[in-house]
Amino acid sequence: MAAGTETVTSSQPKWLTYGTLVLSLAGLAVAIYMTISHYTDDATLICSVNAMIDCAAVTNSPEAVIFGIPVAVLGLVFFVPMVVLTSPWAWRAELPALRWMRLGGVVVGLLFVVYLVTVELAIIGKICEWCTGVHVITLALFALILTAELRTRPA
């Protein structure tokens, strides 16, 4: 078997399954950092500030809270289950319900990212580097989970 093509399950290569877990853990770490920053008065996000990039402008805007819930907390609500759903155990289980939760969850996450990017650019007029990091992680997670799902489908 060629390096990097070993499988955790009969259908998915290790790079794909562990890649999704690493991305989920990275997203969770950023969501934790942003949540701590949100709830700590003297904490500020480490972020460049220029005409287009300003994390404070984004994270302190009225749009940073949806139905009374900070967007950073919504990041936790997304990434905690994704860590579980992308764990080696969940991939080995190969249960249809887990597959659908994993795919459905990441699709919802990606749609939320599209909304957040639209808000950043069209309403706030600034972008946040940390938010963009989460957006890129979510997009990459979507790509890997979709790849896994397409590999699972019969030819």
Kindly describe this structure:
GO terms for molecular function: oxidoreductase activity; quinone binding. There is one protein chain. By secondary structure, the protein is an all-alpha fold. The protein has one domain: VKOR domain (de novo design (two linked rop proteins), Up-down Bundle). The protein contains six helices and two strands, in the order ααββαααα. The protein has a two-stranded antiparallel sheet with strand order 1-2. Helix 5 runs antiparallel to helix 6.
Please write out the topology.
Layout: H1 14-39, H2 55-59, E1 65-66, E2 69-70, H3 71-85, H4 88-93, H5 96-124, H6 129-152
Antiparallel strand pairs: 1-2
Helix pairs in contact: 1-3, 1-6, 5-6
Domain Vitamin K epoxide reductase: 13-149
GO molecular function: oxidoreductase activity; quinone binding
Membrane topology: Multi-pass membrane protein
Question: Would you summarize the structure shown here?
Answer:
By secondary structure, this protein is an all-alpha fold. It is built from 6 helices and 2 strands.
